[in-house]
Every structure is written in structure tokens, then in C-alpha cells.
Amino acid sequence: MIALFVIGLLLHGLNFLLPALLRDSRRLNVASNLLNAAALLCGMCFSVSGLLAYQRAEYHFSLPAAGPVVIGFDGLSLFFLFTFQLVSLAASLYAIGYLRHYIERGLPVRAHLWFLTLLIVSMQLVAVAHNALAFLIIWELMALGAYFSIVFERDKEEVRRGGFWYFVATHASVLLLYVCFFTLHELTGSWNFRDFALHAAYDPKALAVILLTGFAGFGIKAGFMPFHVWLPNAHPAAPAHVSGLLSAINIKAGIYGIARLMMILPAVDPAYGWGLLAVSLVSAVLGVWYALAQHDIKRLLAYHSVENIGIIGLGLSVAWLGRCYGKPELVVLGFAGALLHTLNHAIFKGLLFFGAGNVTLHAHGGDIEKMGGFARVIPLTAVAFLVGAISICGLPPFNGFASEFLIYKSLFSGSDLLHGYAPLALLFSVVGLAFMGGLAVACFTKLYGIVFLGQNRAGAAMERQSEPLLSSVALLGLAGLCAAIGIFPAAGLRLVAPALGELGAAAQAGREWASPLGQLQIVFALFLGLVAAVYAVKAWLQSRTGVRLRETWGCGYAAATPRMQYTASGFAEELVKLGRPMLALAVHWNALGGVLPAARTFHSHCHDRMEDGWRAFHRAIGRFLGAFRWIQSGNIRHYVIYLFASILFYLLCALVW
Amino acid sequence: MVTFSSDPFSWLACALFFAGAPLFTGVVNKLKARLSGRVGPGVLQPYYELLRLARKETVYSTSAGFISRLAPVIVWCTVALAALLLPLGTTAAVSFSGDIILFAYLLALGRFFQILAALDTASSFEGMGASREARFAVFAEPIFFFTIGSLAIVTRRYSFETILAGISWYDPLFVVFVSVGLLSLFFLMMAECSRMPVDDPNTHLELTMIHEVMILDASGVDLMLYQYAASLKLLLYCALAALLLNPFGVFGPVSGLLVFGVTLAALAAVLALTETLMARFRLALVPQFLLFATAIGILNILIFTFSH
């Protein structure tokens, strides 16, 4: 089966040559994306069959320049490989239709397609590299691929700025990862993950360095608070298929890293678990609260990724606590919940970003206050987006519910199995999860209601527009997966099972841990049957009594315009105000005055306190380094003195040693 | 394991629940009318209203799409399925470990569609109601998890049926815990079922409404489904409270149902009395009211944990 994986990589490799072979951008777009899709299909055949008939495999070989490389296919790698491939496949199909609009506007896509392929290939390799050096090199390649894919419309100021946020964040992340992995190498004398895991005893202080740098490094990539600031800046800058890839899977590379570290390192200190729990809870609650305050569709979705990363983090921290306290049930429940949510979030966040891309194409911008009524314009996108919105709120019977159910269950079981203050802390986590559920409902009813329902606030025509076939296939396919995993969570658990097997706890936890998630399809079938039956009764009654269309009742006011509809800011305002002082709501308007007031404007936006904090931090660094700026005088004689001084210094050193 | 009850009484209880929900609303309304010195409509009035609506033509807004047509069905079905999870006097019709989570999330799904249907009509009045509903729900959801969730943690069981069976009435601390939890639950019910002092179901001004303004454009069968779902939801929360108050648990179908019925009647009286004595809060105060209920829940679990 490994042949399929290699064929996939070779097809991707072919794709690197394609921009040189095909002149016509339009054809290149179709060919390159279809080739990627074919490669990913091959790869998916490999990863799915690998997960279903699981057999751990590891391949050692040596590359001329890079030294020994280990490619490993264990449960965790295969699971993430599958997740990455699935969303990349959807993104490739989606990009064909989406990029066509840019090609028609005359934007060059040649380099973009090249870097997109680089991103997709390196994402897959990150998941399977079991050798720290290779991992770090591929990690950097992935960051480069992502950066150049983000700055597609680089003539725009905000795109360059968003790309820069990503660039800085990813390098801060990799710097910490160097410390983490080099420390591991120092302690174990090996670069292989397997040797890290087999290493007998870690010094607690060294372990603290490894864990803190590792969690922080991967946490920056994953977007845990307070490292999330790059997400809401980079996601809106990127074209929709790239934002989908970033949010659905690129940040999951961070989750993969944390999960990998949890697997290879001994869990001794529960403090890390509690710390991660607190960070996750804050990320989740504040993430969705910030999301609620956004007016830009992609920025909103980006903040929502922070929330979902927090939910995944909750599962991971319960797993860590389970290992520290020796409770295999908790390990399995927490880990399964986190991994399943990773897959689910990848699916619905990809779906939502692709849907958002279609919306922004038709609305000519991301400001949701200028949208409305898109359910008529792009109905297929509207249906798929609705499924994504329900899923991301964790509502039944879609996939978000399945994974959140597992995380709830892990928190409840934790409160049952652990002692002391732990049950109380976990109860508060349960309530926090419920609270963010309520906020997510508010956020996505706002987003869906303002964007897709009602009437267009910008006064655009509400006729149906064509949706590209392959984009719709990608969107509806992802929506179908949301429903499939939601109704048959057992299928999702099947994919997670090999990764759990690696933990060693799965065997001790017994087979009943997933109960009753595997059997919930009966309840959902009952629900869907009930919905169908009631709808049939309703339709029958309406066929007898009749249906009429009239304009909306405006309480007697006849001259209502679409701009009088409730706005997104109005919908969320009271909740956002309650989030002060963490959410700083800035309002700019000029008050009415005079007998015949002229036109007035009102503008409000919410800025992120943590982003302000980072900006202040960056300014402080700039000021500090500015103190040394006199060295760069620009006077050539000074540089000659520097040269002379440094040569003298080295000579002196040579003499002394 | 998901278990479907094999006891015919539990399905009978569900049937009675569905049939009796409008009656319960009628009883509350009648009691409320009598307490405020009016004669009031008969207790069967909600049934007549539902029948009347079922025979009416449905009018859809020209801006409304598939959401407005689907939402009433989803709203009704979520409440109906949630009702099957409660052990109504006997064992629950459908029960599994973790059904408390499904219960909360089903109601949230109904709310999701209710809000969307309000935004679907492009009416600013309904947008206002939708915004309020979304806002108050954010504070209502934690209350449920503080009351039922802490009961689950205390009893170490995760389905309604087993939680209720696990409450030991001989432990005075438990009695205090449950009764205080009940207070939070009662507050939650006022918010979720749009009762006073959170929302006034009988007000005549759209600007002051929450639930009623969201269904301003619903008519005919759709409005019937919304109103039926609203009375189901009211009975659902009252039933939950009655079950918590019922020290006989779920042991005998006949005595269980009997005690359950009597407690429900008592709750209807309390509800009517509260609504008669209290005026609606200013909307800005509602989050404080709900946070107060949350605070009670937090204190309750803290006291229980530290004295155990």
C-alpha cells in the first residue's frame, strides 16, 4: 500500500514542473489542482486503508544532503495524514472554481499554484516525519508554502500585513521548537521520535524546558491564546482556499505536535495538564466571544478556530491528567475527543471558509454588514454553510456534537475518577463548554442570518447565480461528511482507534468507553424520522389550507428598506458589551446636531486586547534594539574600524586559547 | 447503551405529556387570570387555538426562504425528542449515559432554527427578538449545566433516569442541594419559556417582547407548531423540576405518575403566582437575573463539595 503514498507524492512532484509546461493560466489552474486532487486521492486510499487495517510501519532511509530520515506511519501520523489529505482534496477541487475569478481579473496564479502544492505536500510530510531534523525542515517548508500562498494578492497592503503576522508567528514557533527538539536530542542522543519515547528517565528540569517550549511552539501554530493573534490577521488576507487550508489543517499541525509530544514524553506532572486546561478554556471562551464581535466573515471564522482549538485542548489536557493520575479511561476519552474534534473541525472549518469564499466573491468583500439574502443567490453554498454552522456549534445530529459529547464525557468522567478540587475544576470546564456553546449559537445565527437570510443590505440583485460545479461538489461533500460522522460517530471513532492504540491505555480502558456514542445513530434516526413525519403532516395541512406570499409585516410601516434590517453589530452588541474589559469595543460616530442634520456615519469595531499587548511588546523590542542603532552609522570609516576590531578580537582569541 | 423503555407506562406517560402540554399552559393561564381577579379563558383554550391555527392559511414573507419553512418543524421535534429523555413518572422512553448533554443541545438546536427563522423575514422587529433570544440563551445554558451537571457529578451518573434514582433523600445535605438547584432551574425555566419576569407572553408591544416577536411573521400551521412547542417546553421544564422534587423516584408507575401529576399542579400554581406578583424586568436586567441563578448554582455546588 505504501506504493500509493509514493505515487501520490510523485504526482505532487509532477505538479512542481507543471507551471513551466503550461502557458495558459486557465488550463494550468485546472490541471494543477486536478493533479493535486488525484495525488491526494491516491494518498487517501493509502491512509484510509492504513487506518482501517492498522499496522504500524516505519521506513528508514538516508537522503544525500539531509542525512537519515525516518518516515513513520503510526496511528497518530496516519490519522493526521488522512485529515490533512481530506481537506486538501476539498481545497484543490474548490480552488479550481475560486481561482478562475482571479484569473479573469488578470492576477498571476503560476507561482501561487506552485506554493500551494508545496504547502499540501509539506503538510502531509509533517504528519509522517518521525525524525526531529526532517520534521523541523519540513515544518519550515510548510511555513514557507503557507506564507507564499497567503500573500497571493500581494499588491494589497492588508494582505502583506496579514502575511507578515503569519511569518513572524511561524518563526517564533519554530524557534521554540528548535529549543525543544535540540534539548531532546541532547538528552537522548538521537533524532528519532521513537528513541525519544524509549528514553528511560528525563530530568524534571529538562522535561520542563522541553514541555514548555514544545507546548508554546506548537501552541503558537495551533493558535492557543494568547498566541492566536496571527490567525485573525492572516486568514482574511489569504484567498479562501488557503484560509480554509490554514484554519482547517495548518493549525492542526500544532495540535499534532502537542499530541505527539504527549505520546513520546512521560506524563509525570499534572500541573501541565491543569495549565493546558486553563489556557484551553480561556482560548475557547474568549475566542468565540471575540468572534461574535467581528464584522468580517473570515476574521470571525478565524476567531472561531481559536475557540475550537481550545475545545481540542480541553480533550488533550484531560488525557494528560488521566496519564498523570493513572486513569486509562480519561486518557482514551480525552484523546479520542480531541482527535475526533480535530477531524471534525477540519471538515466543517474547511467547509465554512470555502463557503465564505463564495460569499465574498459575490459580495465583493468580507464585510457582513453589506451582505444578506445570499441563500437565494448561491443556494447550494447556503445549504452547505448551514450544515457547517450547525456542526461548529456542536449541535446534533452533526459531527460537532459527536466530538463535543466525547469531551463532555471525558470531563464528567474526570470529575468522577479524580479527587480533591479536580471535580470542581472539571465541572467549571463543563459549564464553560456549555457557555461557549451558547456563544457559538449566538455567533453563527448572527453570521448565517445576516449573510444568507433576509434581504441584501447593499441593494444587490437577489437572482440566483451559478456556482462552479467542482466547488459545489467540495462544499456538499464536506457537508455530507459532517452529517455522516454526526449520525454515525462510530465511523469517526474507527479512524481514531489506531492512534488510541498507540497510547497503551486503550487496552486497559476496555471497550465500553465510547458508549453510547457508537449507538447514538438510533436516536438520531428517531429524530430525523420525527422531523420528516412532522414536515409531512405540515405539508399535508398546508396543502389543504393553502399558502400565500406577502411582504414582511412591518407593524404598519410600509416603506421599509433592506438597510433597516437588524445589523450584525446590532445583533451582537449587548453580548459584546458584556465581554468588557477583555473586548474593547470602539465606536466612532458623529452626533446629530442642528435643525437640518447632514448625513451621519456610525462605525464600530472591536479590537483584541491581546493583539494590543503583542503590538506593545513588539514596540518595546523595537525601542530596545533602537538603542543599538548608532552602530549602523552609515559612515564607511566606522565599518572599517569594526572590521579591524573584529579581526583583532579573533586574533586575540586565537592567541589566548 | 441506548435503551428504549420496554415499559408501556413510560410511552403512555409520553403520550400524556404530548396531549397534556396545552392543558398545562391553559391551567397556568387560568390560575393567573383568577389570581389577578379576571375570569380568564377556559383551561382548554390552548387546544382551541391550536385547532384554529391548523385550519388557517399560512402566509410566508416574500423574503423568507427554506429556513422559515423548516424551522417550526425542527423546533417542535427538538422539544419532542427532549421530552422522550425525561423519566416522566416512570422510566424514560429513551435513555443513555450522557442524555443530559443531548437534552441541552437539542433545545439549543431548536433555538438555533428559531433565531434563524426570525432573521429570515428581514424584519427589524424580529431581528431584535432574535438578538435577545441569543443573548439570554448564552446565560441560560450554564445554569442547566450547573444544576443538572452538578447533580450528575454528585451522583456520578449521566442520564436523567439514573440521576433521579441516585438522589438519596435521607441525606439532608442532598435535600438542600436539590432544593437550591431547583431554584436555579426555576429561574432557567422563566428565561427559556419566555415567562415573567424575563419575558411577558401577553404584552402587546413588539418592542418589549422576546419570544413572541420572533414568531411575528409565522402563521397557520407554522404558528401552531411554534405554540405547541412553546407549551411543550414549558411543561418540559416544569416536569424536570417536578421530577427533582419527587422523592418517590421512578419506582412505581401508578404512584410515580400520581405524585408527578400533583407536583406539576403545585408548580403551575407557583408559576401563576410568580407571574401575578412580578412585573417584567427591564431587558438590561435579565442577564443579571440569569447570572444570579448561575451564582446560586455555583454556591450550591461549592457548599455541597466542601461539606461532604
Reconstruct the topology from this structure.
The complex is a heterodimer of chains A (657) and B (308).
Chain A: H1 2-21, H2 25-52, E1 57-63, E2 67-73, H3 75-104, H4 110-128, H5 132-150, H6 157-188, H7 193-198, H8 204-222, H9 230-237, H10 240-264, H11 270-292, H12 297-324, H13 328-363, H14 374-377, H15 379-392, H16 399-417, H17 422-452, H18 469-487, H19 489-503, H20 505-509, H21 520-545, E3 547-550, H22 568-578, E4 583-589, E5 602-608, H23 609-626, H24 636-656
Antiparallel strand pairs in A: 1-2, 4-5
Helix pairs in contact in A: 1-2, 1-4, 2-3, 2-4, 3-4, 3-10, 3-13, 3-18, 3-19, 4-5, 4-10, 5-6, 6-8, 6-9, 8-10, 9-10, 9-12, 10-12, 10-13, 11-12, 11-17, 12-13, 12-16, 12-17, 13-15, 13-16, 13-18, 13-19, 15-17, 15-18, 16-17, 16-18, 18-19
Chain B: E1 3-4, H1 8-35, H2 45-54, E2 58-61, H3 66-84, E3 94-95, H4 99-120, H5 124-155, H6 160-166, H7 172-192, H8 211-214, H9 220-245, H10 253-277, H11 286-307
Antiparallel strand pairs in B: 1-3
Helix pairs in contact in B: 1-9, 1-10, 2-9, 3-4, 3-9, 4-5, 5-7, 5-11, 7-9, 7-11, 9-10
